[in-house]
Amino acid sequence: MFAEENGLKGDPRLKAISQSIRVIPHFPKPGIMFQDITPLFLNHEVFSYAVDIFAERYRDKGISVIAGVEARGFMFAPCVALLIGAKFVPLRKRGKLPGEVISEYYELEYGKDCLEMHVDAVQKHDKAVVLDDLVATGGTLSAAIKLIERIGAEVVECACIIGVPAVKGRKRLNGKPIYMLVEPNE
Q: Per its UniProt entry, which superkingdom is the organism in (predicted)?
C-alpha cells in the first residue's frame, strides 16, 4: 500500500520526498533506471519527513525491531527505531558482520546477493518491520523476512521509500504487507 492510500493523500511531505529522488539511467547495468535517494539526505527537512512518516505509522503498534537492509535501509531504520522505542537490527551483506550469523541468499533484478544477521539480534517474541529504500522484485525483502522469521520473530510489515506500483515482488513477501511512500521517478 502506498502512503497516499493510507490517509496521506495530498500530504506535501510525499511530494518533497519524490522530488528529492534523482534517476540515474543505466546504473548499475544497462536498462536499469536507478532511483538515487542520496539527494534526499542533503535536505534535513525532507529526510525528516520520510523518517517521521514511518515513525507515525509504527509508533504504538508494539513494534520491537526495525530491521534495516544494507545499505540504504541503514539510513532510515535507526532513526525510526529511536523515535518509536524499538531496537535497530542491521541486515548486512555477506561477510560484514562479526560473530555468529545466519545467511539468506536471494536474486536481485540485476544479480544475486546474500543478507546476514546476527543470530541473537531478534528474539521469538519480537515484532519486526523490515525497512529498505526500494522494492521492485521483492528479492531483498523476501530474504530479510526469512532471516528474521527463521529465528521465530514475526515480521509485521515491510516498508520502503520507493515502491514500483506493479510490484511483482509482492508475491515473494509471504503475504506480508508493504508500506511504500512514493512511486519511482522516470
A: Eukaryota
